[in-house]
């Protein structure tokens, strides 16, 4: 993914001659496919249109960093793939098992890197024997609770209360997990759109309002990567408690995001090849 993070407050963005101008800096549009606007900026609608016409997606990050709006070209493509995706709903359980099976294996592998061994043989057997999506989600939920009880034990109690919390996150580790999950989910959505998938139609997850169910399916393949990334941020002391505000929940401060962007950009670069490979694998399964 060719991503630009723009977090300068009140920056002026203009598009001229297929070049994005951010104040005095110039970036050729051909070098971008995604722009993350992480602060308020000055941008006219005609320039937004020019960017989407060049295949660029904009992610607009809220002030608190807990939500994103996606601006993407309305031009649809690859109708054949969408039709195959819809037809594959008749095999939803089979495809859903793939996502859960891979999630279990990858989470177990991530913990093994910290010398924590989870016996997942029985879990994988239950996945194969599941007779419905609801049963599969129950197995996945039980495994997630087991995983998190071990994952959170890797952190100091000073920054982690020992359990998963969201809406709002209750500690810096959960705040960072939610932040990176949210960003990764939206970048997966963008990538699915670029390949011609319908992101709202999933197999393990079901569509609901603006929820992109297929992006959530793919998130199960990359949550272990996100968790490893979050662990590294704290383990290498790139982030600390003072980087988070504590009001109606715990959130990464705006000023602290600058510590994260370079690391997150490197993270997304590492994930991209894996994501493209996974998307190609799903396309082959349909």
CATH architecture classification of the largest domain: Up-down Bundle
The CATH class of the largest domain is identified as Mainly Alpha
Q: Total helix count?
A: 8
What class do helices, strands and sheet pairing give? alpha/beta
- Average pLDDT for all residues: 91
- Rg for CA atoms: 20 Å
- Output the helix-strand order: EEEEEEHEEHHHHHHEEH
Strand content: 5-15%
Number of domains: 2
Characterise this structure.
The protein has 286 residues and is α/β, with parallel strands linked by helices. It has two domains: 3-71, CRISPR-associated endonuclease Cas1, N-terminal domain (Ribosomal Protein L15, Chain: K, domain 2); 79-285, Four Helix Bundle (Hemerythrin (Met), subunit A) (Up-down Bundle), CATH 1.20.120.920. The chain has eight helices and ten strands. The chain has a four-stranded mixed sheet with strand order 1-5-7-8, with helices on both faces. A hairpin with a 2-residue loop joins strand 3 and strand 4 (25-28). The longest helix has 29 residues, at 257-285. The model has no long low-confidence stretch (mean pLDDT 91).
């Amino acid at each position: 993914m060719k991503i630009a993070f723009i977090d300068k407050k009140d920056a002026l963005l203009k598009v001229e001659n297929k070049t994005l101008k951010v104040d005095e800096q110039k970036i050729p549009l051909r070098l971008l496919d995604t722009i993350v606007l992480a602060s308020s900026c000055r941008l006219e609608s005609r320039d937004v249109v020019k960017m989407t016409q060049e295949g660029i997606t904009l992610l607009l990050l809220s002030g608190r960093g807990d939500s994103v709006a996606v601006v993407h070209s309305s031009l649809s493509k690859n109708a054949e793939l969408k039709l195959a995706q819809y037809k594959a709903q008749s095999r939803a359980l089979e495809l859903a098992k793939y996502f859960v099976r891979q999630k279990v294996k990858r989470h177990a592998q991530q913990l093994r890197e910290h010398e924590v061994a989870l016996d997942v043989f029985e879990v994988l057997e239950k996945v194969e024997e599941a007779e419905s999506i609801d049963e599969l989600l129950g197995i996945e939920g039980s495994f997630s609770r087991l995983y998190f009880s071990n994952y959170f034990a890797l952190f100091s109690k000073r920054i982690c209360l020992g359990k998963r919390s969201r809406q709002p996150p209750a500690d810096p580790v959960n705040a960072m997990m939610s932040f990176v999950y949210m960003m990764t989910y939206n970048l997966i959505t963008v990538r699915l759109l670029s390949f011609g998938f319908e992101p709202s139609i999933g197999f393990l997850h079901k569509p609901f309002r603006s929820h992109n169910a297929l992006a959530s399916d793919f998130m199960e393949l990359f949550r272990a990567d996100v968790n490893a990334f979050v662990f590294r941020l704290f383990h290498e002391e790139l982030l600390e408690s003072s980087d988070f505000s504590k009001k109606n929940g715990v959130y990464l401060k705006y000023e602290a995001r600058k510590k994260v962007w370079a690391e997150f950009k490197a993270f997304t670069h590492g994930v991209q090849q894996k994501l493209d490979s996974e998307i190609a694998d799903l396309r082959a399964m349909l």
